[in-house]
Structures are given as structure tokens and as C-alpha cells.
Amino acid sequence: MQTLVIGTAGHIDHGKTSLVKALTGVDTDRLAQEKQRGITIELGFARLDLGDGNFASIVDVPGHERFVKTMVAGTSGIDLVMMVVAADEGVMPQTREHLDVCRLLGVEQGLVVVTKIDLVDDADWLEMLQEELQREFAGSFLEGTPLLAVSARTGQGIEELRRQLALLAGNIQSRRLDAPAYLAIDRAFSVKGFGTVVTGTLVSGELAVGDLVDILPDDEGRLRRLKIRTLQVHGQTMERAGAGQRVALNLATVEREALSRGQVAVLAGSLEAGRDFEVTVELVNGARPLGTDSGLLMHVGTARSGARIRLLEGKSLVAGQRAFARVRCQEPLVALPGQHFILRGFTRIPGRGTTLGGGRIITILPPRRRSVSRQELLRELAVLAGGSLPERMQILLRHAGRRGLSLDELAMRLGSGRETLRRALAEAAPAAQAKLSGAASLPSSGGQRGVKQAGATEADAAPAAQAK
Fold first, then answer.
1. What pLDDT does 128 receive?
2. Is 259 exposed, middle or buried (0-12, 13-18, 19+ CB in 10 A)?
3. 434 falls in which pLDDT band (50, 70, 90)?
4. Hey, which residues does 213 pair with through a beta bridge?
5. Residue 39 and residue 81 in contact, taking contact as beta carbons nearer than 8 Å
6. What is the pTM of this model?
């Protein structure tokens, strides 16, 4: 059975929620205010049967520019997107902004859905619309993708859309299971007779019934080692969930009021929140040049924080360029190396919105670099951004000093699973004995559950490897 997460995107009142209802039978507008105003305000969720035992969870996002922060939270973790454009309006500002967000968050699969086709019977208008869509999406991941005309009111094109989604689902690559478990929480609520439940997309790793999880950020230490009582995947009760699935966790010994969107559920001891990150950053088309030490809003997973960005290459960044930078957040955020993020400003870009740019996180809990020149720093960041696991591991171990890093600390900073690191350390030890010590004496695997244990074993507590 294959499961995946599909997101909607597009301008307000272009028919995203009606489209989801036509596909699934579920009205994802749950709030009374949404019913009264006729617009989506909060994230909505529905389950879609793709046939042959395959299922998808659809995340329906709001299209109003005031709720782009909610849209970003919903788009984090999706596998493919339905870019929705109304036939009677065409491309609008949030069409472009949502496309920018999807691209910056690393979405690589999708299709274009032209809704409300029953409202347009002018062949010339439809031809101009098709040309506009081809022009707008040229050079993006949506270039050359299926363009489907549908009507949620009459049902025209809905079955073909479902068929195309099933075909696209077959192209989705599996996510990493041997990696730190990372569940970005988008909802928290109470269920009578069960207690507190959180939901989100499991971006990486695995979670299972009985696991102990931390809810981060948690400065006061009150949300540690919470037991998973029960677990659901795409609405079905399961014993285990893997990366790329929509998951609901029923947690013990925690009140609903202590949990909210923006927090992250991780295996106990496997990750920590931070305020400082080293990143790559780029701007969207039309954005003004970004100066160093600029104040922005940073979105990671379902969380956001005010942040200041310091460029490490030059004094300013323009659209079309990519640069290394350091980000200092006002609030602690939880992130994985390699995770994508969004930067939003406070001034609207003409024809778009306030999404200014984004990029990819290179390091969390950045190492303290002593006596490192700017050129050496940039070379290290290039390796950390695109080098092999052994190359990245060497850099972190070199900066760890004589204390070294435990296996769990190394896994946290590299965003890799413990078994993957064990193999890499074992392979690196013969060729790099001058740099590493202790790699050959790493504890052997304790089976699949050993991969999932977050806390270091007694043997792991000693440095797994040290700089000479």
C-alpha cells in the first residue's frame, strides 16, 4: 500500500475546497466562520482513495493573502500539489505566491487544475488562459505537467483528475526512514475517552505505539518522554508510521492546552530546538535586493519566528542568486539539516505577495569555528550543503574538539539515522584513523528498535568519534 500527501494551492475563491469535496466527499471547511464567510481560514484534511489499495491525504490550504502563513504550514511536508486556477479569473497574485512557496519548500511534483470550467464557454478565452498558464509556469516544476479542466459543480473532469493523481503518485520517491523522526504538528485537540491528540505529516523517520516522544520547543522541560498510546495513519489505526504519512498521535500525560501548531514531535532525546542556523538562501522573482542583517519572518515546518539574516557572501542578494547565510531567530525552532524554509517580508511584491524567498538549512546547532577564515568557512558550508555523509561528518567532528560527539549528537547534527552513521563511521575508520578514534568500537545494532531508540546507550555515551 502506498500513501502520500497532496496539497492544494491557489488564489482565494478559485475553488480549492469545492474541488477537494468533489474528489473525496469531505467538506474541509470545519469552522462556523468559514461557512459564514465562504472562505477557507484554517487547514482542512480529507482522505482520497487512489485505487489499488493506495491512499492520499489531501491538505486543503487557504488562498487569502492574510492566511499565507497557514498555507506555508500546510504545504510543509506535501508530496505533490494541485495548483488550482479558476477558469473565469486566471492567474492571480496568490497563484504566483503559492507557486513560489511550493518551489522553495522543495515540491517537485504536481499538476494544474482549471476549476469552474462550467462558467466559461468562450473558446478564445480558454485558449488565452492556456497560453497564460504555460507562460506563468514556464521554468517551474509545473512546466509541461498535466493541465486538467474540471467542474466541482457538474463533476466534469473529476475522474480524470483522480486518475492523473494516481499516476503521479507512482512517481513519488520514498522518504528516509533511517533518519530522525520529525512530525510537524499542525493540529492539537482532545478526544473524549482518549485524551490529547496531535496530527501532522511525518517528514522523516518512523514512530510506533509505545515510543517516547519529546514535544519541542520545550524550554521548561515539561513535554519530554511522552508515551504514544495509539497511532493512526490516514485515519486508520496502526502500530507504526513511516515518513511521508499523515499521522495522528494519542499522547499520554499531557494536556491539550500545552500543545499547538508549530511544535514538533520527535523521538525522545533525538533533536533539540535552536535559534541559530547556517543556510543557503535565494529570492523569488520581483523581490528587492536583500541586505545583510535584514529582519524577516522565517517559516520552518509548521512554525515561524522573527529572524535576522546575515549574508556570508557579499553585502546584498538579488533574485536569481543563491548565497550562504546565518540566521538568528527570535524564538527557538526545530529543524533538520537539509530541511527547506520560507522567508517572508513585510512589503508586498507587486503581482505576488510577501513571500520574499527561502532556502535550505545546512546546519542546526552550528559548530563553534575557531580561527576559520571566510574562504574556509564557505568551503566547509559547500561541503555540508552538498558533500557526502563521510565528508560532512569529518567537518563536524573536526570542530567538536577533544570532547568529540556522541552517536546521537552526530545523528542530530547530520539529520541521519544511527544505523546509517554506524556504517559510515565503520567505513571511515580505516581510511581516516588520523582523524577518528573509537569508530571501530561502536555498539552493534540492536535490531530495528535499536535504530529508533533516541537516547544514547551506555556505550554510545562516550564519544563515538573524536577529532585527533
1. 95
2. buried
3. very low
4. 226, 267
5. no
6. 0.89
